[in-house]
Amino acid sequence: MNAIVMMLLGLGAMFLGYVFYSKFIAEKIFKLDPNFKTPAHELEDGVDFVPTNKYVLWGHHFTSVAGAAPIIGPAIAVIWGWVPAFLWVVFGTIFFAGVHDAGAIWASNRNKAKSIGNLTGDVVGKRSQTLFMIVIFLVLLMVNAVFATAISGLLIKFSSSVVPVWGAIFVALIIGQIIFRKWMGLGAVSVLGVIALYLLIWVGPSVPLELPETVMGVSDNAQWVLILFGYAAIASLLPVWMLLQPRDYINGLQLFIGLILLYGATLLLGPEISAPAFNTNTPEGTPSMLPLLFVTIACGAISGFHGLVASGTTSKQLDKETDARFVGYFGAIGEGSLSLATIIAATAGFATLADWEAVYSSFGQGGVAAFVEGGANIISQGIGLEADIAETLLTVMAVLFAGTTMDTGLRLQRYIFQEWGGLYNIRWMQKALPATLLAVGSCLLLAFGAGGADGSGGLLIWPLFGTTNQLLAGLTLLVITVMLVRLGRPMYYTLLPLIFLLIMTVFALIVQLKGFYDKGDWFLLTLDLVVLVAAIWIALEASASLSKIKKEQKAENTKG
Question: Which residue windows are transmembrane per the record (predicted)?
């Protein structure tokens, strides 16, 4: 099949989902109120609580949740064939991710911008809150440690991306000052920012930069990991308007331009999909598609990490409650479109089936490299852009998104330590600097303690990221569902995705449990058991909470 057909079907369905389904959810289910005073106004402090233009906030939310995951997941999952990956990305975006992201913003916004973990204690119960905080911490630990490793690897492999990646930070700092001090309109500064960013991408291949292979026995990969965490620590302490917002906003614009180039080249080139629709000849050792498809593709369909961003930073910057539809649901659409582009690049970017099979020689292959290679082939052949420029553009896109996710992830991890400090009355932990040091320290402990001198320890527990992350999405949907039930509103639009996620997550955990046992990997087997118990516990808590609320409402109706 021609890739143009896949592109038009996918984008068309997501467009209709935003126009009709998101409007229904926003007006009839969440009942977003433009007159509700948001925490950004009520608690404005100029650092974390800052009322923000919805387009700028969309850029922050979208690029924070996008990261490398919506590229890595789909580019691995196409090993089962492009049809299953395509269907889960499209329908998952419309009926799962959009509702989840917008709902998390709404739930947090209605509760003083509390994080979804903190909110669980009020809405569901203290037992669920304790469980939720542990799961959140594990997910953030995985994301930060692994993304640092992933970015390091890309900066080493594609040295032409170093200048544009780090140059983008200085561009963002300048843009932040211009927007915050209102020296220039948003439209003009957007154009200048994009021009500056693409000039850096054009310059990148001419000035490739590499770190020394070793410095005092520290490898180049470990050097980048340390630099990245040093940067992320500083970024997490700065006011959101200074770096986080403008960096995310300009990266969001850059992504859309990159997607326009990739989709435009697809239209002009019309490449045939070389990968099979359903792969019946998967490499030896490839696990069953069901249920692992639904945890391999998380971001791009639905992801628990989105709930952390939505309730951790986004809700603190919401100018009007009605902006939650655009920021949350359309943010999910943006990520879905990136995952769709990834599927096209990883299936139609190779000339023949043999070329594709050479890349997908075992499960776990593909990933960012397949996206960059396949996407660069389509862009260079479709619109005539030089191959090295196209490759740099797509690499920078992946690295910048992974970087913005890491920025936000470390800030969220800092919030977790501060919330623990408040929960257990540890005053020093409630302060930003000590909490940040604890967040960085825990990530570095995993990176170097488990991974050795190269700092790749996050990869050790990465196999459990998909299941843990989807468990987190289920928890977020549980909080939203309970809130809806208490308000007497329809719950099935969140309850059905919740049930589906719990079934698939438990199924996947059991499958992985057997795999870890067969390999004798007792560390991951133990972690898997912990997450499995958590998933079952959540299911029981969900059932008990909803049953209790229903009984209370029935009793009140009987009295009335």
Answer: 6-26, 62-80, 86-109, 130-156, 162-180, 185-204, 224-244, 251-270, 290-314, 326-351, 393-412, 432-453, 459-485, 492-510, 522-540
Residues 6+ apart with CB under 8 A from 528: 464, 467, 509, 512, 513, 516
Structural domain containing residue 107:
3-559
Give pTM, 2 decimals. Answer: 0.86
Tell me the sheet residues that pair with 272.
2
**DSSP string for 251-284:** HHHHHHHHHHHHHHHHHHH-PBP-S-SS-SSPPT
Total number of domains in the chain = 1
Q: Are 113 and 128 in contact (CB under 8 A)?
A: no
The DSSP line for 461-529 is HGGGHHHHHHHHHHHHHHHHHHHHHHTT---HHHHHHHHHHHHHHHHHHHHHHHHHHHHT-HHHHHHHH
Residue 489: other Cβ atoms inside 10 A: 14
Tens of pLDDT along the chain (560 residues)?
Answer: 899 999 999 999 999 999 999 999 999 999 999 999 999 999 998 878 999 999 889 887 887 777 677 888 899 999 999 999 999 999 999 999 999 999 999 999 999 998 888 888 777 777 777 777 788 888 888 888 888 887 888 888 888 889 988 998 999 999 989 988 888 888 898 889 889 988 988 888 888 889 998 888 889 989 999 999 999 899 888 888 898 888 878 877 877 788 889 999 999 999 999 999 999 989 988 889 989 999 989 888 999 889 988 998 899 999 999 999 999 999 999 899 999 999 999 999 998 999 999 989 888 777 778 888 899 999 999 998 888 888 888 888 877 777 877 888 888 898 889 888 887 888 999 999 999 999 999 988 888 877 677 777 776 777 788 888 888 898 889 889 989 998 889 999 999 999 999 899 889 989 989 888 988 888 889 888 888 887 787 778 777 877 878 787 777 777 65
Q: Which helix or strand (DSSP H or E) is residue 343 part of?
A: helix 330-348
